[in-house]
């Protein structure tokens, strides 16, 4: 019933585009998008990676259906539970490194350090990007 074609159909190789995606910049402290001349600011440089890290560290994994495969679950380790501090640091390091390396812009996380200060975790690490740039990150979790 279907017509038969004798011609060979040319296969086209599709290259995956791993270039950094652009995003609108957000000021998380002020809780608003950054604007210039009344327009939202787009970025696809180091600021994009910094913002992605900020967003992923602030997002609770599995809290909402939309974030089932996005965010961090370290909150489960530090809220209402008593784990040995060595285990807590090792698990936090593992989760942060795995999550950060899922971003195609990030090639490595180095010099990871975590310290318990009162009831918060103070975390620092260096981020290395595919474009050769790097920056240091620090945050209270």
Automatic annotation (TrEMBL):
It comes from the Bacteria. InterPro entries: Sheath_initiator. This is PF10934 family protein.
């Amino acid at each position: 019933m279907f017509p038969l074609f004798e011609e060979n159909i040319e296969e086209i190789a599709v290259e995956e585009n791993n270039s950094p995606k652009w995003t609108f910049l957000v000021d998380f402290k002020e809780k608003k998008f950054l604007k210039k001349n009344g327009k939202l600011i787009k970025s696809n440089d180091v600021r994009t990676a910094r913002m992605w890290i900020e967003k992923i560290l602030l997002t609770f994994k599995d809290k909402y259906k939309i974030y089932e495969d996005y965010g961090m679950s370290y909150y489960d380790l530090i809220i209402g539970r008593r784990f040995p501090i060595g285990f807590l640091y090792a698990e936090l390091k593992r989760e942060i490194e795995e999550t950060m390396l899922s971003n195609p812009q990030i090639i490595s996380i180095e010099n990871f350090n975590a310290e318990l200060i009162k009831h918060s975790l103070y975390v620092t690490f260096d981020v290395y990007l595919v474009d050769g740039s790097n920056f240091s990150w620090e945050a209270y979790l």
